[in-house]
Amino acid sequence: MSTQAIYTFVDPASGDEVSVFKHWDGYPRGAATFLQRAKALAWPLPRFEADEFAAAFVAANKTREGDCRVVSDTSKDWYVDYKYRIGFAHGGLVVEIFKRDVWTGDYTLVDACNLDDMEVLGEVA
Predict the structure, then answer these.
(1) pTM for the full model?
(2) What is the rounded distance in angstroms from the CA atom of residue 105 to the CA atom of residue 68?
(3) Could you tell me the pLDDT band of residue 105, with boundaries at 50, 70 and 90?
(4) Which residue from 71, 74, 87, 112 puts its CA 20 to 30 A from 58's CA?
């Protein structure tokens, strides 16, 4: 069974948002790994543009058909386990983590942290 997630990249300067669906490993440790991979392909910080970082996220993490895609309507219920909002603030990438309650379907903010403070998997730790 997969842990699905939607990653919404938010440009603080323009307010633009771009969202990407990832079919598997959407729990926070997996998300941290995917975001670190994307960071390696994106503009060096402090330059942060939502669309460019979303493109880097897809380029760094798409491994097969259907596992990673740009989505235009995040208002519909995707039934994902996690939603992440990622932006640039305080000199780094800030990640808000929302987890879906399986009984109500509501998303609750469970953490907000700097990407470098998220628990990551071996290769990027």
Answers:
(1) 0.90
(2) 22
(3) confident
(4) 112
Enter the tokens of residue 61.
């993490």
- Contact indicator for 24, 2 with CB cutoff of 8 Å: yes
For residues 44-77, one letter each, b for 16 or more C-beta atoms within 10 angstroms of the residue's C-beta and e for the rest, the string is: eeeebbbebbbbbbbebbeeeeeebeeeeeeeee
Calpha distance 80→83 (Å, rounded): 7
Write phi, then psi, for 89 (nearest 5 degrees). -160, 150
Three-state secondary structure call for residue 114: strand
